[in-house]
Design a protein that fits this description.
Length: about 150
């Protein structure tokens, strides 16, 4: 990706190789979002920790641009956003995005630590990980939410 003059939330990133983000799978995108989002949260809300003092406001803003770049990249998995990226507004956490994120979060949370560690080992080793994958789709939960609203 060409470095943009205008920093647009969801499109601007400081990742060294943003093209590589477009090649990683859904699980790795979710994992990057979860980890980066957690790091940003704790840097903002746990200032009493020694490491938090090492994080500047500029670094937090850069991390937020990268997080929103990852969030917006979930479009390739069918996630929908109701508005285009903007230089003045953060990427929305749409109902579609929230369903996608919760689906993967709940799936990995349901694994025991031992099973999760084995999954990570197998994935990193390039082994078949189909036995660890959830049944259904994140879109199923989105459909269930829509049905509940109609009742």
């Amino acid at each position: 990706m060409e470095n943009m003059k205008e920093k647009v939330w969801g499109l601007y990133t400081t990742f060294d190789n943003p093209e590589s983000i477009e090649k990683i799978d859904e699980i790795d995108i979710w994992n990057k979002i979860d980890n980066l989002g957690g790091a940003i949260f704790w840097a903002q809300h746990d200032a009493g920790k020694p490491w938090a003092a090492d994080v500047s406001m500029a670094q937090l803003i850069e991390a937020q641009y990268n997080l929103e770049y990852l969030v917006y990249s979930t479009r390739r998995f069918g996630v929908e956003f109701s508005r285009e990226p903007s230089a003045t507004e953060h990427v929305e956490r749409s109902e579609s995005y929230n369903a996608w994120f919760r689906f993967w979060h709940d799936h990995f949370e349901s694994m025991s630590p031992e099973v999760y560690d084995q999954f990570v080992d197998d994935k990193c080793a390039g082994k078949d990980i189909s036995k660890y994958m959830p049944t259904g789709s994140w879109k199923d939960s989105l459909e269930e939410q829509s049905q509940k609203r109609l009742k």
